[in-house]
Amino acid sequence: xxxxxxxxxxxxxxxxxxxxxxxxxxxxxxxxxxxxxxxxxxxxxxxxxxxxxxxxxxxxxxxxxxxxxxxxxxxxxxxxxxxxxxxxxxxxxxxxxxxxxxxxxxxxxxxxxxxxxxxxxxxxxxxxxxxxxxxxxxxxxxxxxx
Length: 146
Ligand code: DQA
Description:
Layout: E1 2-7, H1 19-22, H2 27-41, E2 44-49, H3 53-65, E3 70-74, H4 83-92, E4 96-100, E5 122-125, H5 130-143
The protein binds 1,3,4-trihydroxy-5-OXO-cyclohexanecarboxylic acid.
1,3,4-trihydroxy-5-OXO-cyclohexanecarboxylic acid (DQA) binds near residues 10, 74, 101 and 104.
EC number: 4.2.1.10
Subunit structure: Homododecamer.
Pathway: Metabolic intermediate biosynthesis; chorismate biosynthesis; chorismate from D-erythrose 4-phosphate and phosphoenolpyruvate: step 3/7
């Protein structure tokens, strides 16, 4: 089974970006850890990050072409703005889990709505970088019907 981990805008700055909110782990470290997990779980893993909405949409379309079975996505601020990202995920009909490092419900009001959440299988927020790992484990279990 193949899983795509997709990170949106500003997540390339993880580690140095507002560390009091997002922690000090870099995206490279997160992705390394996820590759270890994927190996243990017997999953093929692709990781992508982009600051551009159109690139994320293209990556979602490409996911369908290369047979991705599950997407773990941290859409960053596009969660709160992008109907296009929602439509892309709905369009490819690949099940996905939405991840946010911070607890978006405990922050500014404009972060409390996500255009993706109601079509996600599940949403994990507030658990920092661990959220990605939990999402990957959940995806693996769903894919193997456990
Ligand atoms: C975020 C939360 C978003 O509101 C914010 O715009 C981000 C990061 C998170 O992981 O907590 O860029 O998605």
